[in-house]
Specification:
alpha/beta, Metallo-beta-lactamase, Chain A, Oxidized Rhodanese, domain 1, 3 domains, six-stranded mixed β-sheet, globular, metal-binding, Rhodanese-like_dom, Glyoxylase, beta-lactamase superfamily II, sulfur dioxygenase activity, Mito_Persulfide_Diox
């Protein structure tokens, strides 16, 4: 069977391309659709269907642009109510793609419309299942997202539906089926996904805690809900965009790709109140940046941290990037629904400096310098890693304020007393540092290399305790 996984690491996202006899189907596409169109063109194939496993929360799907550009039919599972034309499949309905068949299996739980697609080859043999967020490798989809859109869909209700879907629809299928999930490790749609992005269903039945054969419904619900973190604030907004529709990516790009001189950039920022987002590396940002800009580096989990730290997807944004990387930044913002970039600084920060405009810097220290200060000055240390990382191992005497909770805990950052911020490697702590600087904090330093380098000094850390894994 000709099925390809198209994986995008920065979002831990997997789309799928299926082709037979000149007909193709795309499953759960990302916002930028040209790569899928090019892939089908390479096979001289016409994209017949765009299959959606559910209304996604962590990204804006490309289904509408694919339909517009190729004429493909959009397919959702039972109970879906999109605000645009689409096929709403019946449970068990079969779609033909060349000599292949795609069978819709309604598997509510992650969301009520969640649907798994069973792939059947030209000989009638069942090959694999495209599971969306119903079943991951090593995990299953979190059941608490839909309640942020539909209030009476509690996480307990959805977890119960997911238990039934897994036991009645997925687990009875053949062990040799290949599982093709929508996400891998790093996605916020589950809590302990494997770094592997495919597996056999039989192996998952043996190793995935949620598929344990003797697990009762109450035990399953408790296991599934234990340890869930608060989902990023942009998730419900992305769901609504996927349900109601959105501007085409072409329109978003046209609106965003406006080069602005330093003078024009500053004027637009003052007139609009747009957020100035600097996507350069932490080290370069610290050496100099446009006043009041914040840093979220493009060479990291950019889209996810934009979604965590910028609460409104409708926020107007002005970009500061390395030369010729503005299109990449705009595209990656649009993947998570931030469609309102209104321009970028032409020539990047170097142009700002060359124009003799005022800029700011951030103080950073090497771990060796911190080691000396730790002994003599005993500074306040603030660790902005996740609570699970902090609980596993941290500098003794430090306090934990996870980056995604920083806005709720600004009062814990002293303005008079000096302090130190760090994360694992420096990416997240620079986001935190830029936000603090923007809000008026000045008496702090960031640690180059973060906790990964601090551990190599003589600074005392708590003993590492292996995080418990739910069995």
């Amino acid at each position: 069977m000709k099925i390809e996984q198209i994986y995008t690491g920065c979002l831990a996202h997997a789309a799928y391309y299926l082709e037979s006899k000149g007909e193709a189907a795309i499953f759960d596409p990302l916002r930028e659709v040209q790569p899928y169109i090019d892939r089908a063109r390479k096979d001289n194939a016409k994209i017949k269907y765009v299959f959606e496993t559910h209304f996604h929360a962590d990204f804006v799907s490309g289904h509408l642009d694919l339909k517009k550009k190729t004429g493909a039919d959009i397919v959702f599972g039972p109970t879906a109510k999109p605000g645009y034309e689409a096929i709403i499949a019946k449970d068990g309905q079969i779609f033909n793609v060349g000599d292949y068949k795609v069978k819709a299996i309604h598997t509510p739980g992650h969301t009520m419309e969640s649907t798994t697609y069973l792939l059947i080859d030209e000989n009638g043999k069942e090959h694999g299942i495209i599971t969306g967020d119903t079943l991951f490798i090593g995990d299953v989809g979190r059941p608490d997202l839909a309640q942020h859109v539909v209030e009476d869909l509690t996480q307990e209700k959805l977890a119960g539906h997911l238990y039934d879907s897994l036991r009645n629809k997925i687990m009875p299928l053949a062990d040799d089926l290949i599982v093709y999930p929508n996400h891998g490790a790093g996605s916020a749609c589950g809590k302990m996904m494997s770094s592997e992005t495919t597996d056999t269903l039989g192996h998952q039945k043996k190793t995935n805690y949620a598929l344990r054969a003797d697990m009762g419904k109450e035990e399953f619900i408790e296991a599934l809900l234990t340890g869930l973190t608060t989902p990023p604030g942009y998730f419900p907004q992305n769901v609504l965009m996927n349900i109601k529709g959105y501007d085409s990516l072409d329109m978003v790009m046209d609106r965003a790709q406006k080069p602005l001189s330093p003078e024009a950039f500053e004027a637009v920022a003052n007139e609009t109140g747009a957020l100035m987002l600097d996507t350069r590396d932490a080290a370069d940002f610290a050496k100099g940046f446009v006043p009041n800009s914040i840093n979220i580096g493009l060479d990291g989990n950019f889209a996810q941290w934009v979604g965590e730290m910028i609460p409104d997807v409708r926020q107007e944004i002005l970009l500061i990037t390395y030369p010729d990387r503005q299109e990449e930044a705009i595209t990656r913002l649009s993947r998570v629904g931030y469609d309102h970039t209104i321009g970028y600084l032409k020539g990047g920060f170097d142009a700002w400096k060359e124009a003799k405009r005022e800029y700011e810097t951030l103080n950073r220290i090497a771990p060796e310098e911190l080691e000396k200060a730790y002994v003599s000055e005993k500074p306040l240390l603030i660790d902005v890693r996740k609570k699970s990382e902090f609980d596993s191992e941290h500098v003794i005497g430090s306090i934990n304020i996870p980056l995604n909770e920083i806005n709720q805990h600004l009062a814990q950052f002293p303005k008079e007393k000096p302090f130190v911020v760090y994360c694992a490697g420096g990416y997240r702590s620079m986001i935190a540092a830029s936000i603090l600087k923007q809000r008026g904090w000045n008496n702090f330093v960031d640690v180059v290399g973060g906790f990964d380098e601090i551990k190599n000094t003589g600074i005392k850390t708590s003993e590492y305790v292996c995080p418990t894994t739910m069995l």
